[in-house]
Amino acid sequence: MKWAPVIGLEIHIHLKTKTKMFCRCELEYGAEENSRTCPVCLAHPGTLPVPNARAIEMTILLGHALQCEVVERSVFHRKHYFYPDLPKGYQISQYDQPLCVNGRFALADGSEVGITRAHLEEDAAKNVHMGGSGGRIAGADRTLVDYNRAGTPLVEIVTEPDLRSSEQAKRFLQLLRQTVVELGISDAEMEKGSLRFDVNVSIRPEGSDELRTRTELKNMNSFNFAAKGIEREIKRQIGIYESGGEVEQETLHFDPGNESAPPLRSKEEAQDYRYLPEPDLVPLVPGRELVERLRGELPELPGARIARLADELDTDLAEGLVTSGRDRLFEQVPGERRAVANVLMNQWAATGVDPAAVDADELGKLIEARDRIPRAAFTEALEATGEPGFEAERYLADGQIEATADLEPLVEHVLAANPSQVDDYRGGKEGLLGFFVGQVMKETGGRANPKLVNELLREKLKA
Amino acid sequence: MTDTLRLTAEEAMGLIERSEASGAELHRAYLDAIGERDGELHAYLTTVEAAEGAGVPIALKDVISTKGVETTAGSKILAGYKPVFDSTVAACCKEAGLPLIGKTNLDEFAMGSSTENSAYGPTRNPWDPERVPGGSSGGSAAAVAGGLAPWALGSDTGGSIKQPAALCGLVGLRPTYGTVSRYGIVAFASSLDQVGPLTKTVRDAAFLYRIIAGRDPLDSTTVDLPEPVELPETEDLKGLRIGVPRELNEAEGIEPGVSEAVQRAIELCRELGAEVGETTLPRSVEFGMPCYYLIAPSEASSNLARYDGVRYGPRSGKGDIREMYMQTRDEGFGDEPKRRIMLGTYALSAGYYDAFYGQAQKVRTVIRDEFAAALEQFDVLISPTSPTVAFPLGAKTENPLAMYLSDVLAIPPNMAGLPGLSIPCGLSEGLPVGLQLIGPQFSENLLFRTGHALERAIGFDFVPERLR
């Protein structure tokens, strides 16, 4: 039987507000432990939450980008569980009345992924487990808590189970990430934890539309690992069904260092979160004027730009440019389109230069001349494109030593330095010409015109 | 020598204005009275030696966070906890120059009707030390009635200001939900908790309410008052329509002496020019209590989750985190909080939410509508505050349900978010009887006027007979 995967995602994004979701502690990644705390985010008795208006606006903006409905009335709930990273014993989150619902997000390949909801909540603190093994609470000697992160505004985006392959899931994540970065609402950096996601995976016979038991993959720390983890989970489930078994609903903890995904918890241990409408907050009723104003603030989104660029390039190249944040530069750089795109995605990408620092016209000149200058010189020039006042001209001029007058002394110097090789060549070992050319190139940092060097060498060696 | 038993807060303001006494001297006089009588009454958990402020001193219930002054909520789980911030109401009192005398005893986490649930021992009623002062603001009530504070703040979730005011012969206001900030009030049931004054006179209550009421940016559920607080002057009730809800006045368990005192007060209303008529609140009284005992414990189970020994308060347990949680909470909470945490946890559990908490919220809407209808016909509704006078210590501690019934008349208007003023309306068996006046949302000024006129006509002496 052929099997088809069914994949859904839950993505958490830290919002880039100045202060926390329900108190006015400043958010600063990497600040000294517990230095960004107050009685509210430490859950001192009697403290109350006051929502961050900017976080609400950012979520509405995201809702627009995901083509969601922004509801007229949204409610915060308390989600209960005991853990030291949760100071109140509950997380303020949104439950059955999220702020944004029923959206969709178009991918470069033309497919659309349904967005079930995008809701606002607060992040927990960070536990650091000391001693024991594996950094897990079980077996640790003691646990330290850093409450700086407690109360960071967090948007959770839940997709419909519309994704059909690990590759598609990866592309969805890349495009979504680029979208939130461009909206200016999040850094969405996985290494800082400002973008996290869980993946729900199930499989079904190809052609069927049933939904079978799914498993949840947690702790994905890169898009590539996610794709790998999904692949592995699909294979595991196929193996189970084909040997006559049943997939159990469970959460799998992805460990990239170890090619296994041990279960975290199965459904029998599922938590009862005892959701309660947050009585300390009044329902959130976003003004229609605000909602419409934010709709007007939407920039042209990455998805739309891919569609536009795909007309002149192929889809993969367009998608690559946009999700790597290089498409705006691409549009400014003059020159043959495909050549510019290829350089930007390959040689130039390798330099790590910030696109915003580049003079597009100068880069265009450089790309245009790329076949006329040596590879090493071209690379060197690309690396310098981010420097202030970069001029392609200098590298083009410097790039090749074209004048016989400039090269002649170098050629003579090389010959004088290698008398035995000169004798051998003159004795008939003409294959040594390449050696001499190499020596001259070395002397000039690869910038000598190879044709001219060849000519000069032959001429001098004849003598 | 100041007669702290007799002195009202308004009179104390007069002494200060006329430079006949300073805030610090008054503060000292109350500390002296505490030294003299609090050994018997045990109204205070903490007293403050240094007078901070030049105004009339005040006592605060120990759920009200006071910067640097221990705030325990009557619980062992907060033993030694000194807030690093002032609650908004404590800050309001400071700003008004009211020196803090001390923190008053209460039922643990404000859960109870007799102050016997305090982890630090019960408070006694100044009218009869063998009897309870009511609760949960029993410490604040006993302090004011016993001349240990000119006025005090309490908190009321299901009658915790009105009922002790009634049992101690005082005026107690439970304000409209949302008019007084809850920021820094140790939470019991967030959708019901409200801070209010316990005083000797209605005018004192109005003075104190004026100091604490108003929108607070730190509490999203507060609102601006639609009109400023007025000090009542009126001496009659001409043109006022007073409704007597049958169920609130004829409920099972109302003592005959209580009924008689309330009947006399209703007669007085007529004599003062009010139109008095009967009305009905059938579902509010029948369902008010059960509804309250789903909503309040549900919210309490959530609000008390933060007491886990991780960040403040005592910590017990030597094993893993689970054991630390269990032992800390087992040793830290008394029986009543545990009972309510269990009730609330059950009511919020998956599969039960709709049947319990969800249903109770719907019933709450029914109660709100029923009161709204009655208050279209009448300006003020009237009833006893408590079905009984102060009962002996220990009389109800073995039977939580009997204890809960002490608030059966105070709870229904709370469920509707309405303000309630309790004023003393006479004695039964030598003990004070409380009269409950209920008005529409934000009708505090009307309640003060009504209460003030009645108070003058009744002429109740708030000094306990045995201390005169």
Structure description:
The complex is a heterodimer of chains A (463) and B (468). Helix content of chain A is 37%, strand content 18%. In chain A, the strands form three sheets. A nine-stranded mixed β-sheet of chain A has the order 2-5-6-9-1-10-11-12-13, with helices on one face. A three-stranded antiparallel β-sheet of chain A has the order 4-3-14, with no helix packed on it. Chain A has three domains: 3-294, no CATH class; 326-399, no CATH class; 404-462, Arc Repressor Mutant, subunit A (Orthogonal Bundle). Chain A is elongated. Chain A contains 16 helices and 14 strands. Chain A starts with a strand and ends with a helix. With 463 residues, chain A is of the alpha+beta class. With 468 residues, chain B is of the alpha/beta class. Chain B has one domain (9-280, 368-467): Amidase signature (AS) enzymes (Alpha-Beta Complex), CATH 3.90.1300. Chain B is built from 15 helices and eleven strands. Chain B has helices at residues 9-17, 23-41, 88-95, 138-145, 162-167, 202-212, 246-249, 256-271, 282-303, 321-332, 335-348, 354-377, 400-404, 411-415, 444-458, and strands at residues 44-47, 58-61, 100-104, 152-156, 171-174, 194-199, 241-245, 275-279, 380-384, 420-428, 431-438. In chain B, α6 packs antiparallel against α15. The longest helix of chain B is centred in the C-terminal third of the chain and has 24 residues, at 354-377. The two termini of chain B are 16 Å apart. The A-B interface holds A 39, 42-51, 78, 80, 82, 84, 87-90, 137, 143, 145, 272-276, 279-282 and B 63, 65, 71, 73, 78, 81, 83-85, 87, 182-187, 189-191, 217-221, 298-299, 301-302, 304-306, 308, 310-312, 321, 325, 345, 348-350, 353, 357.
